[in-house]
Each structure stands twice: as C-alpha cells, then as structure tokens.
Amino acid sequence: MSLLQVQDLTVSAGARELVHGVSFDLRPGERLGLVGESGSGKSLTAMAIVGLLAPGLTAGGSVLLDGQQMIGRPDRDLVRLRGAVASVVFQDPRSALDPLMRLGDQLAAPIRRRAVREGRALSSAQLRAEQIRWLDRVAIPEPDRILRAWPHEVSGGQRQRIAIAMALACGPRLLIADEPTTALDVSSQAEVLDLLGGLVRDEGLSLLFISHDLPVVARICDRVVVMRQGRAVEEGPTARVFTDPQDPYSQGLVAAARRLQSALENPA
After folding, report:
1. What is the pLDDT of residues 28-85, one digit of tens each?
2. Single pTM value for the model
3. Domain residues of the chain, as ranges?
4. Which of 27, 156, 242, 252 has its CA 20 to 30 A from that of 1?
5. Measured between alpha carbons, how far is 221 from 217 in angstroms, rounded to an integer?
6. Would you say 171 and 45 are in contact if contact means Cβ atoms under 8 Å apart?
7. How many CA atoms lie less than 13 Å away from 24 in the CB half-sphere?
8. CATH 3.40.50.300 is the classification of domain 4-265
9. Residues 6 or more apart in contact with residue 63 via CB below 8 angstroms
10. What sign does the dihedral 229-233-238-239 (CA atoms) show?
C-alpha cells in the first residue's frame, strides 16, 4: 500500500495553472526524487501535498497521505497530519527557523507535540534529554551551547541540522526535503546529505527529495520523477532514468549534468 498517492494534482494561481495533472505514488520506506530546473513545479507539488501553498494558490486533484485526502480539507484537519505523518525540511534554514527564538525552544516544540500525541508527560529533565538526543542524532556537538544559541549564532550547516532534527522529532513516516542543501557550501552539502540518508534509513522513513541537482538525487533516491513546466514528463528507477532517459527533456538534463561533471573533473 502506498503511503502517498498523488493523482492529477494541479496548482493554480487564479486562472493560471502552474502544475498540470501530476501523478505519482510513494511506498513506505521508498525514496523518490522530484527533479527539474527552477520553475518546473517541484516545490509547488511538494507544498500542495502537505497543504502549505502560499496565499493565492489553490490545489486540485487528489492527494492521499496515509489514506487521508489532503486536497480541499480545512487547515485545522491538515495540522493533525503534519508532523504525525509528514514533515518538511525547507531549502533555507534561515527562513525556516524563527530568528527570535533560541534553538533549544524551537527543538522543544516538536518534541512536546509528539509527546502529547502519544499521551506521554515530559518532565523538564526528560525534555532536556530528548533535545540532547536529537542533537546527537544530527551530529551537533556542544549541545549546551547550541540549545542556548539564537539561529544567527550558528553556521548554515548547523541550522539545517537543527531543522532536520525538528522535522524528525515529530515522528513522521514521510520526510519531504525541499532542496535541503542549496543554501549550504559544498562541504556542508555532502555532510548533510550523508546525514539525511542515514537518518531516513535508520528511522525507516519514506523520503520525497526535491532537487535540480541530478548527482545528488542519484546518490539518495531509488526512483525519480522528472518535471518540466509543471508537468511530469518521465518517471522510473533512478539508475534507468539517469542512464537511459526516454523523454527529450530528461535527455537534456542528463547531458547537461554530465557536461558539468566532466568540466569539474577536468578543469581547463
């Protein structure tokens, strides 16, 4: 049974349709990549799945998340599914984290929310232990300093690790990662990708990974959906799509990625 079923999904801004009839599914424990150039509709698709579209945008079609219809439901119903079933790691942790809250308070919020959902009471000591456990899971040292720190007092890589810890502390079954390494330097990108892949595997999660970076998707995803101008133009196992693409747009993306890789490996 699929954890996520997307059928004929549309996203519109007034009379203008931006995402056109996209369909795919995601099984428990599977890693699916949405790839395409900027403006292809990847992030709009991901945000429509969890009901987080910007004001002025509307979704149509069908999105079943753990058997629950997400399209057309009031936000108060969707809130119960966010975190409990699906969590999101956003592209830029600077905008995802509240600059006016200490990191410890921000990490405490999803921990408390999960405890309430599970009917558990958390003492101050237990909450602190949970915060430190999650910092350890995302490989952040000096937990006392980090928990007292404001977002601007830590590095970009550490902010993104905190955002990942917050997303996973909710106890989701699906993690949606929307270009999670774009705002990071190259060394931090590799570290965060390795961390993300390990956590998804260890927690037994499904992963919807949005990126324009084909080598990154090849590294982390089992299956891929290629998007162009709001449409899904190709879908299949990652190895097959990236070695033998069938759609002309997919062929162009793969060729461009190969040229870039060759230029990086053989600089003039």
Report:
1. 999 999 999 888 999 999 999 999 999 999 999 999 999 999 999 888 889 888 888 9
2. 0.91
3. 4-265
4. 242
5. 6
6. no
7. 26
8. yes
9. 4, 5, 6, 7, 9, 48, 49, 69, 70, 71
10. negative
